[in-house]
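## Example pair
The file below holds two records. Each record gives the amino-acid sequence first, followed by its structure token line.
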Amino acid sequence: MDLDAAAAAYLRAFGRAVRRRRERLGLSQERFALQAGIDRTYQSGVERGVRNPTVKMVAKIAATLGTRPTRLFKGAERAGKLGGDNRRCADLVSLRLWRRRAP
């Protein structure tokens, strides 16, 4: 799995984790977006894995869901299966982010 495919798979799994948590709370996307102070279409994109939320946005989403960002990421790893290799996919995404910061 190349880095772009790994990142895309991770975003989809993260979005599913966010959706599951939101639905458990009984919130519609529209209601959730209103409470979080974000656009409903942006929230939809996060849940579908087509948006790449910033750390700030992940924190805002997690706070509105009443959880920590780390729980959403763990939920993504557990539920996503990410091609059957969660650890490798998460490592590839982390490596890619690290390389962007490296001089």
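Second record, same layout:
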Amino acid sequence: MKNCLGYCLILIMLFILQNNYCLAQKLEKMPQLRTDQVWISSVPNGLNVYFAKDTTTGNVDEEGSKVYDRKKNRFYLMQNKYLKGKTPILLSSISPGKYLIGIEPVDLIIIKKSRDPNAFFDDISFHNSDPTHKASAVITPIPLSSSSNLLKSFQQGKFKNTAVAYNFSKSDSAGSCFIILTSTDSTITDVKTKVLYPKGNNYDFDDTKLKNDLMNNGYVALHLESQIPEIINLLHRGGKVIGGDKNTEFVVELVGPNKWAIDMRIKVANER
């Protein structure tokens, strides 16, 4: 009888894990990824990771909604039940679908594009938020009801100890890698950015093949070959690098062991 009860409890626990929770494992080095796995990391490491199904679509950001509780100043994702651990982390048993990934704490730097002290939305941009991912929400410790304190922080150009939620789509064809940069500049030309990268060989890939891939993707034509050794070094450490110059940006990101993606972007000057 005891053995039967124990077996039933194990089955119940497995059912709960499979249907309501993902399995989280703390690892320093990215492994080979199964199709049900998601690797989440950041530069720097050690940030809290929240992970949950995206229920924001179709909801209105209002008091009492599932998206944001104004009374508690809480975005639904940033709850203990969705806290999975600290970066870097490997999540397993993730089914295909749309999710939100939240990280904290991040000190967001506010860059104003106009001289209007109350300008917002299209008139500002956030730094320390990864420019390569779409942010779904920015959650400050200051309640939205405290408009004077929000305005003060905004005018000072910084929101301290914020959380940022990103949209994430999990496919059914392969494991996924989601690496988040959280520095003011995020490019390898910024000395402060390079210091944030963790030490050690945390990502494996063929240096020669990656070097050739970079050269074939415009690094030679744009005379940026001198950046390649630093890119390779930082990729082994953090898995994601932004290189280039004032006109062109290269995002190089590991998407699995010995697998990478290179995205070249032409910078457009703000006309305002």
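Notes on the second record: Residues 4-20, 61-65 have pLDDT under 50 and may be disordered. Residues 23-181 form one domain.
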